[in-house]
Amino acid sequence: MKILPLIAIFTTINIATPATAQLIPPTPVKINNPSIPDVRVIRNGTTIRIYNGKIIKNIRAKSLKVRVLDSQTCQGKQVQRQTLSGKRFLTQTIEVDKQTGNLAVGVLLQDCFKQKISAAFILQPEPNWNNYIIHRVPIPGARKINNRFSTYPLRNIKGLGFVDGNLIIKYANSDNSEAMLVYTSSNKPIGKYAGCVVTKQSKNNNICPHFN
Question: What is the dihedral of CA 91, 146, 196, 180, to 10 degrees?
Fold first, then answer.
């Protein structure tokens, strides 16, 4: 893990949180750059409405699907993989990359007493803005992820942000520990996983991904 570059990124980060997210008020935010869309959450969090000044596009949370590895079902059963669809958008985790117009969103996939599961997605606008290409952000884990449809689970995504094209994911576990994942900019919209920094420790300090 490259700690120093990550620290340099963190010193300038401005992650969307419940107190700072500016893209999801009752009315769209006006942004001077016409290539940057206005975004708001509607229908009790189940849909986001994207407006680029000409075209309005609605995207439903349930249209975002991902294969989650090594997680628990709502019945508490441990499974190697399960395919889940979004239930609602996490309103504090919606952020636009002002350099590319790509939209990062956090989505709640499973909301159960036994196990909450969330995932991050990048929505890449097509050149005509008529549609968005869905990219799943792969959270690393014990086994290498060999396809673009899978991820390891996150319990609680607390914020997303971009710094010079680098994607930052702030998340927490049930023991109240917190960490940030960094994906450096690359030729792929999801970037390249660069590392993890614990920002709030707990007794079981294992919140960052571990590799065999």
Answer: 0
Contacts of 29 (CB under 8 A, 6+ apart): 22, 23, 38, 39
Domain boundaries defined on the chain: 3-200
- pTM tops 0.85: no
Neighbours of 1 (CB within 10 A): 10
pLDDT 10s digits, 97-154: 998 899 999 999 999 977 899 999 999 998 877 899 999 999 999 999 989 999 999 9
Pairwise CA distance, residues 18 & 67, whole Å: 27
Given CA atoms 76, 122, 64, 81 in this order, what sign does their dihedral have? negative
Tens-digit pLDDT profile for residues 160-192: 999 999 999 999 988 889 999 999 999 999 999
| Cα angle value 180/140/126 (rounded, 5°) | 85
